[in-house]
Amino acid sequence: xxxxxxxxxxxxxxxxxxxxxDHIHLEVGEGEFWALIGPxxxxxxxxxxxxxxxxxxxxxxVELFGSDINSFKHRERIGYxxxxxxxxxxxxxATVLEVVRSGLTRKSGLFRSFSKKDEQKALxxxxxxxxxxxxRQNIGELxxxxxxxxxxxxxxxxxxxxxxxxxxxxxxxxxxxASFYSMLNELNRDHGIAIVLVTHEIDLVTDLAxxxxxxxxSIHFHGIQSDYKKMDxxxxxxxxxxPVRRVHQFETEVDQ
Length: 256
Ligand code: ADP
Prior knowledge:
- By secondary structure, the protein is an alpha/beta fold.
- It is 30% helix and 29% strand.
- The chain has helices at 44-51, 96-101, 116-128, 144-156, 174-191, 205-208, 225-230, 233-240, and strands at residues 4-15, 18-29, 33-37, 59-64, 67-68, 78-81, 162-166, 194-199, 211-216, 218-224, 244-247, 250-253.
- The chain is globular, with a radius of gyration of 18 Å.
- Residues 15, 20, 38, 40-46 line the site of adenosine-5'-diphosphate.
- Residues 6-241 form the ABC transporter domain.
- One of its GO terms (molecular function) is ATP hydrolysis activity.
């Protein structure tokens, strides 16, 4: 039987009086790679904020690693990379290594003292995302895609079992997106880290993910990737809110 690391049961959420999430059921198992996809404004970030404990659902229950979220004590098991992470400008006075090390404790600042062991953990984490050779470089000198890898290394430094990413390819050049996704695939496959990747792009990512959830206020589909692929374009368009068609194994929005 799969052990669930995220279990949402009948979760609803409203901002003021407008319902943003409507009776959501979602179960993410150990080692699974989920793409949570939906158009802008479909409630993806709200759902992630609920999983992270930053918002309380209006009704329903959330369990993380088998514990009710209200009594969950192992935040370090979850690494999170937000949408706005990769935006350090060139003058920012921190090295890549300092940024990654700062993920080791919530209380630490970028520049507090760290042990040699902390440094080794940070270097190992940078190695996983293919960025070890950038350790001594200033974070602001890196491209958006490189910075995003560094932020993933920061999220991995505490050795989480689950990595949640909100729109991680924003700010990455199109030609680097495929290699970024293949790095995520390795993380999942070779390191056994479960991934929840949030995106409004219904393309490449659904080819990498083992599971897909389609959100637009409610969950329109959730299940294994091959079943998602069997859905016809009309079903996908109805959920997404405007026409989409799939080209080869990838999905592409139809030009309006
Ligand atoms: P997504 O991440 O899919 O773009 P969000 O979860 O950010 O969607 O937003 C879902 C809906 O909730 C949108 O209609 C958005 O305008 C609304 N919303 C988001 N944050 C707030 C807020 N703090 N107050 C009121 N409405 C909000």
